[in-house]
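Amino Acid Chain and Its Fold in Token Form
===========================================
Scope: a single protein chain, as residues and as a discrete description of its fold.
Amino acid sequence: labelled as such and written in the usual single-letter residue code.
Position: the record begins directly beneath this header, with no further notes in between.
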Amino acid sequence: MVARTDLVTDPRTRQDLLLARRGTAYFSRKLRELTDAELAGASRVPGWSRAHVVAHVGYHARALARVIEGVRAGHSVPMYDSDAARDDEIEFGATLPGVALRNLHEHAAVHLNVEWRDLEPERWTDTASLDARQDVPVSATPWLRAREVWLGAVDLAAGATLDDLPDGVVDRVTALRA
């Protein structure tokens, strides 16, 4: 059987996919280092536990996968119905037991990866709706994911620091905030 590989042809998007996948692996490693009891501990995000961070990262992957599925089907699907719906989803996710949070993260990441892998090359220039205020090319979604998983690993307060991020990630995040 022949292995299935990414269909995307743009070199920058390929780099961002690799960055997102490496970031997902790094986040997964930091998550595995935490016990279930430690998930209830404080994260680096004010008002959020580590469980909130894991829920956010997991649901972020699910939301991006929905967007990509919509693009593949030829219609626009926003990541979230509203900011309130996103916040409610994260609050609910933070109440899940550790095994469920870990499964949410792992399964959502695999689903998103499959959606990216199978997306036809010509669809990467289509528009993806992040919310009612922002549309981006589908090719921007790997960077959005990379940013979330790398910064999420730091937000877990499980030993990761900004110095652990690959070259360029902090620069790109800083450029977005400028």
About this structure: The mean pLDDT is 89. The beta strands are 127-131, 134-137. The helical segments are 11-32, 50-73, 83-93, 98-118, 141-155, 169-177.
